[in-house]
Structures are given as C-alpha cells and as structure tokens.
C-alpha cells in the first residue's frame, strides 16, 4: 500500500463517516488482509447479503474500497490506487489485532480461505491426468519459472501484470519483486484456484481480475512488466494480444512471453484447444516490432543435463522503445540447473 497523499477536508470527512460504523470498520480490517467477495463477507460477518452490499456501497462511494466484477461475482479490496485506500489501510493498522471481535473475524476469514484451498485441490484432482500428460511433453516447470525470474531480474517498486494467470504460479514467483502485482484470466474457475494458491503463499494482496486479454481494464502505461506465460497458443489473434499487452507498458517497460516453438502435435488442437502449434523466433519478434517493442532476448529453455523434450519452450523479452533506443537481440539456449 502506498503512503497516503493529501486529502481534501470533504474527502477526509466522507472517509471518516464511511468507516465510522462498527460493521464497516470490521470490513475495512478484513479487506486490509486481502480481496474478498460479498459472499465471503456475508459468511464471515454473519449478516445478510443486502446489508453487506449496502455497507460496501458506502465504503466505495467514499473512495475507501474498489469493486471488481468477475462474471456473476463481485470482489472488493481497499482502493490501493487512491488516497482513500491508503487512509483505510492506516485505520486498519491502528486497530488492536487482539480485539476479540477482530480475532474472531480473522478466524472465520481463515476458514473461508481454507474452503477455497479445498476447492482448488478438488479441481486439480479432476484434471490431474491430462495435466500431468501435458507437463511431461516439455521442459519441467521449475526450469521455465527460473528462466522467467532471470529475465525479470531484480524487479522494481512499480507494477507487474500477469496475463492469462491461470493458477497464479507466475505471480507466486514474480509478485514479491514488485510493489503491485495484478493477474488477469478469462476463467472464473482458474481465478478461484489462483486466489487459493496465492493466499496459501501469503500473497493475499495480489490483485486478480477476470478480463479479456484483448481489451484490458487498465490505463495505458500502467505496468513496468507484463508476462504472458503459455497463453498465446490458445488465441486466434496473438499479435493483437501482444499489442494490447505492449500498450500496458510504461516507458522502458518489459514484456516477457513464454510459449512453445513450432511443433507438429496436432492432438493439442483437437484435445486441448490449442489454436497455434508454437511460434518461431521471427514471428514473435515481428509482432513485438508492430507493438513498438524491441526484442532483446530470444531463448530456448532447457533443463541442465536433462535429456530432450518433445516440445521446445521459448522465452522472448521485448522492451518498450520510448525510454531508450534499440536493444541488441540475444539468441541463446537458456539452461537452468
């Protein structure tokens, strides 16, 4: 959470009025722990959905919280983009964490998160067979994740965006390097899994949004890093998705793409909805150029000493040209121990 900025007297009074009620103050304390749905808050606080919705509406109108749609669901979090959210976070920090009522709220919050984790485990049990088969076709995930971390480097106090976040694994690895982290996926089911995984990893403040990779709900230039991990092969128009991702970058920002090199495994089209059977180095570099990015990294990811896989995994990195000039392209084989 960023430090509070100056608030007008009217905004401060509105915030104080909104938070100055027992249930709303409890809601602020809960949202300081991470994002929650109306249903979550209903279960935790033991109040009706209309009443909880009314409290949330007042908090949102005062600029303390923000509402996000996820299909038929609505999720709320402290408004980290505004001074009102920082003010709300300060209020939550001033509360006595040993207050019996707040302790009970956190215990019920833990139960809600445990239920999410159980649902995520059930989902993976249902897809485990196909999941393991696909994983066996390419280099181990740990090697790919290590390659992404190396391409990211030290990170920054700025913001990162993970497109097609799936189970949230890239966020688990990369989000701690950044001041703000956001994951977007079209699937509510996958976001539910990601939310459970991130909470288990202690990253409950990472933002998750349901959205279209071709029409992202963020201001242009909002992110220092965008990651698209194993997503492009599902898309009809990967170039369009890359242009939209590039538009999210701040000057000098980076876009990292991980996907398969060209292959001939046609069953992936018929059985797993793959639209594209991999991408060449030149193809991705060309789309980067169309999007105003310089491709400065083009690597094949391999595991050290570890045989060959049927599918080659590639990593590309593009840099926004507005801050600096052209970048020399490095083409290598990225071997991870």
Automatic annotation (TrEMBL):
InterPro entries: ArsR-like_HTH (IPR011991), HTH_ArsR_DNA-bd_dom (IPR001845), Methyltransf_11 (IPR013216), SAM-dependent_MTases_sf (IPR029063), WH-like_DNA-bd_sf (IPR036388), WH_DNA-bd_sf (IPR036390). Signal peptide: none annotated. Pfam families: HTH_5, Methyltransf_11. The keyword Methyltransferase applies. Residues 4-98 form the HTH arsR-type domain. One of its GO terms (molecular function) is DNA-binding transcription factor activity. SUPFAM superfamilies: S-adenosyl-L-methionine-dependent methyltransferases, Winged helix' DNA-binding domain. GO terms for biological process: methylation. Keywords: Methyltransferase, Transferase. CDD domains: AdoMet_MTases, HTH_ARSR. This is Methyltransferase domain-containing protein.
